[in-house]
Design brief:
The chain has 260 residues and is mainly alpha-helical. It has nine helices and no strands. Helix 2 packs parallel to helix 9 and helix 3 runs antiparallel to helix 5. The longest helix has 31 residues. It is globular and about 65 Å long.
């Protein structure tokens, strides 16, 4: 494990155990703290503007169309990379038992870049089962046959991603290295706290379903592409922050039980 890449435990880390209502009690408190409140709202606004630029560019019928689309696309990657960093800050603070983030970590020795690259690696690992299956099917079938299995392949990839993301995220953040995507501590947590893991998957499943339902309902009401396109991105930022808050609560419980 690279000591420079591993997040430092907060000096305010709680030694007491997590609340009885693990996934609900004071869950949203952290989003009222100054740095976190600013981060989630600024990122949501910026991501919405990026997607608005892309939608606006597509609606134009002149030479400037491609510039707006390219501007929105490139800046979206930058905003998402910053979001990756913020997720780890939320996850780390929550796993330490904190309900507030007093200040954002300083970018010492490229820490933010490390956070962003690490989360990118976690996402790639969680998506790898779908990519491997796609490669296998492509090796034994034609492109046309592969296209016919598209819905199944997409569903398989999403389910694997949903299952693996919390496992990889807690392991990598705990160990501080992408080389340990499933740590022994997390496997112990799954075996010992399997009911809490099932609760996490149920809650995150409801959260994702609610996100999809809200976007679908919004699109049914709003017809303008310029307004419809940015909304999923804005809501995605808020939902993703809440998702990693839930994952962090389970990491807190696992760490407390292991120390006991």
């Amino acid at each position: 494990s690279d000591p420079e890449a591993k997040p430092q435990r907060s000096e305010k880390r709680r030694t007491s155990g997590p609340p009885q209502r693990l996934f609900t009690e004071n869950l949203l408190t952290i989003f009222r703290s100054g740095p976190c409140f600013k981060a989630v709202n600024i990122l949501a606004l910026l991501f919405g503007l990026c997607l608005f630029s892309m939608a606006f560019g597509q609606s134009l019928e002149n030479d400037y169309s491609e510039y707006f689309v390219a501007l929105g696309g490139f800046t979206s990657f930058a905003v998402l990379f910053a979001t990756f960093t913020s997720w780890q800050v939320i996850l780390q603070a929550t796993s330490d038992g904190l309900d507030e983030v007093d200040e954002w970590p300083e970018n010492e020795k490229g820490l933010w870049l490390i956070f962003g690259l690490r989360m990118t690696g976690i996402f790639m690992l969680a998506l790898s089962p779908g990519a491997i299956l796609c490669w296998i099917l492509l090796a034994v079938h034609s492109v046309a046959q592969l296209t016919a299995t598209g819905p199944f392949l997409g569903l398989f990839t999403l389910v694997c991603f949903w299952i693996l993301l919390p496992l990889f995220t807690i392991s990598v953040v705990d160990s501080g290295t992408i080389r340990d995507p499933i740590s022994a501590r997390v496997m112990w947590s799954v075996a010992r706290l399997w009911k809490k893991w099932l609760q996490l998957y149920a809650l995150t499943g409801v959260l994702i379903a609610g996100y999809v339902g809200a976007i679908t309902a919004f699109w049914q009401v709003v017809e303008s592409p310029i307004i419809r396109f940015p909304m999923p991105g804005v809501l995605y930022i808020y939902v993703s922050f809440l998702y990693f808050r839930l994952v962090g609560r389970l990491a807190w419980l696992g760490d407390h039980e292991l120390r006991e």
